[in-house]
Amino acid sequence: MQTFLAFADLIVFAVLLLVGYIAGRIAEKVHYASIRKREKLFERVTVFSSRFPPTVSQPFQATLVCGSVVVSQDYFKAVAAGLYSIFGGRVRSYESLLDRARRESVLRMKHAAMRKGASMIVNVKFQTSQVPGRGVGAVELIAYGTALRPVA
Amino acid sequence: MILTNIEVIPGKRVVRHLGLVQGSTVRAKNVGRDIMASLKNIVGGELKGYTELLNEAREEATERMVRQAQVAGANAILNVRFSTSSITQGAAELFAYGTAVVVE
Predict the structure, then answer these.
(1) Which residue from A5, A63, B1, B101 has the fewest beta carbons nearer than 10 Å?
(2) Across the interface, which of B2, B82, B91 has its CB nearest the CB of A144?
(3) Cα A135 to the chain's mean position, in Å?
(4) Running along chain B, 104 residues long, what does each successive block of 10 average in pLDDT?
(5) Under an 8 A CB cutoff, do A130 and B86 touch?
(6) Nearest-Cα residue of chain B relative to residue A61
(7) Residue A26: which residues within 8 A CB-CB, separation 6 or more?
(8) How many contacts does A have with B, using Cβ atoms within 8 A?
(9) pLDDT tens, residue by residue, A40-98
(10) Interchain CB contact of A72 with B (< 8 Å)
(11) Domain residue limits at B36
C-alpha cells in the first residue's frame, strides 16, 4: 500500500508536468503569434519612455492610458524554475513568460490609446507586482503613460 | 478632469497648484478565484479574473483620487503614478497619486 501511494504520487507529478509542458508550450506559441500580429496592427501608435514627445510643434490633447495583465506560470515552468534556482543562472522559463506579459500589457495600453484616437504615448512606466495568494504563482504587469491625440 | 503622467498638459497652462491628491483601495479576492487560479497554475496563461479585478480596483483608486481633486477645485491631475502592494496573502492595495492643478 505504502509503495503504491508513493507510486501514485509520482504518476500525478508526471501527469501534471506533462500537461503543464504541453499546454504551456501551445499557449506560449499561440500567444506569441497573437502578440506579433497585434504589434503590427498597433504600429501607428508610437511609444516613448521619454517624458515629452520628440516634436512638440503640434497641439495635443492628453489622457492617461493603462494596460495590464495578470499571468500565471504553468506547472512545468514552476518545476523548471525550481531546478534552475538550485544551480543559479538564467531562469529561461520565466523570462519568456514575463516577456510575453510585458508585451501584452504594452499592446493593451496601445489599444486603449488607439481607441482614444491617440498617435503616441509618452512617459511610459512599467510596474510588476506579485499577486498575493496561497499557492498562486502569478504576477501582474502594468504599463501606463500619457496618450497624446493630435488636435487639428 | 485631465490626467497625465507628465509634468505638463500639452497646450495648457498651469494656473495654480493644489498639492498632492491620492486614492487607494484594498481588494481581496475570493476563494473561488483562488481555486480557479491554482488550477490555471497547472496549464499557465492569463488569469483573466485577476486582470479584471485589479483593473477595476485601479479604476476605483483613480476615481477616488479624481474626486479628491474635484473637491480641491482642480480640473487636472499631473504626474499620476500607480503603485500596487500586497498587504497579506489574499489582499492587495492599489494606490494612485498625483498633483492636482488648475489649468486653462
Answers:
(1) A5
(2) B82
(3) 20
(4) 89 91 88 75 83 91 96 94 83 91 92
(5) yes
(6) B10
(7) none
(8) 141
(9) 999 889 999 888 877 766 788 899 999 999 988 888 888 888 888 888 888 888 898 89
(10) yes
(11) 2-103
CB A62 within 8 A of CB A147: yes
Q: Enter the ipTM.
A: 0.86
Q: Which of A51, A77, A129 sits opposite B6 (nearest CB)?
A: A51
Does the domain made of A2-150 have the CATH classification 3.40.50.2300? no
Residues of A in contact with B39 (CB under 8 A): none
Q: CB B51 to CB A140 under 8 A?
A: yes
Distance CA A39, CA A104 (A): 9
C-alpha cell belonging to residue B70: 474635484
In whole angstroms, how far apart are CA A127 and each of A20, A31, A41? 27, 21, 24
- What is the tally of structural domains in chain B? 1
